[in-house]
Amino acid sequence: MARHLRKWLCAGETMLNAQRPAIGFDLDGVICRPPFGINFAIRRGLRGRPLPTAFSWKGGAPPRGRFLRMGLEVLRFAGRRPMPDAAAGLRAVVELRRPLLVTGRSVLGQALLERWLERHDLRQYFAEVLPNPTALTGPQYKLWTARTRGLREHVDDDGATVYYLALHGVHRVYLRDWPRNRGLPYPPSVQVIRSLEELAEHLACCDQEVSTAGGNPPVAGDDVDPVP
What we know:
CATH class: Alpha Beta
Largest sheet: 6 strands, parallel
CATH superfamily: HAD superfamily/HAD-like
Radius of gyration: 18 Å
Number of strands: 6
């Protein structure tokens, strides 16, 4: 009987979570700790290329290219651990949103990514895990995913990506604070956060303000650019 009760409770939680608005999460520097705790990968360039109307998919890559890419993904997971606040922060966020993991890492490493999340007990917090199956750059892929999935909110550590998403209409972009992403001319829709728990607090405050004003919390798809 206890087993059936747990299944019923889990099913209820799944249905409730499905009704919450989705939010995109980057992996590296947001969920996954960078090597030696130093985030060298953050980019600061502000000249992102426009999202093309047509692009290729990685399934068509030659075998040699797939092999090299897979080797790179294996190396990128070597010795990597979650950010210290990842589990606690995600537990708080799932009370308010439905997290989707949207990473520029190649879809060829999806099995590795799923295993890494499971090993660190983080997979349970993500409704979907969406590595990049396209030839788009990381910022382009995240914008394309925001548009096709109706994501109004996204969390990232990369300065160039945050600027690009905010500039192209993602309603609110959360910048995970690192020394290398500071000082850029971010649009007003960018909100700096220093932890995922701070993110959850900000989401709760935003929802409360909307509720107090007589509106509804954000619904996926509002104020997001149409699919190209």
